[in-house]
Amino acid sequence: MKYIFQVRIKEGHTAEEYAEAWVKASEIIQQAPGARGTELHRKIGDDKTLIAIASWDSKEKRDAMEGQHNSEVAKIIRSAAPFCEITPLGEFRDPEWVVLPPEG
């Protein structure tokens, strides 16, 4: 499954500031059972808007990680709060099919 959220960088701050916190928190979170990686993307034409995607084996494994309070992750998230606004977009199932271009 995918957990997706939007990050809006506040004026006077940069995406790089958020990305630094993102990497620190992700390194810890990705040690949890079922974690399958994270991605952070900039919106084309708007360097202040990012989309974050966390991949998990299942919703249950992500929920289990969320249920385990990690003070270090909480501290990192608090440190990023002054320079961004985070909007959860939701939890999405992995696709039932994937269409890839033919190898050439």
Automatic annotation (TrEMBL):
GO terms for molecular function: monooxygenase activity. It comes from the Bacteria. It holds the Pfam family ABM. InterPro entries: ABM_dom, Dimeric_a/b-barrel. Gene3D superfamilies: 3.30.70.100. The keyword Iron does not apply. Transmembrane segments: none annotated. Keywords: Monooxygenase, Oxidoreductase. Residues 4-61 form the ABM domain. Coiled coil: none annotated. This is Antibiotic biosynthesis monooxygenase family enzyme. It comes from Idiomarina loihiensis (strain ATCC BAA-735 / DSM 15497 / L2-TR).
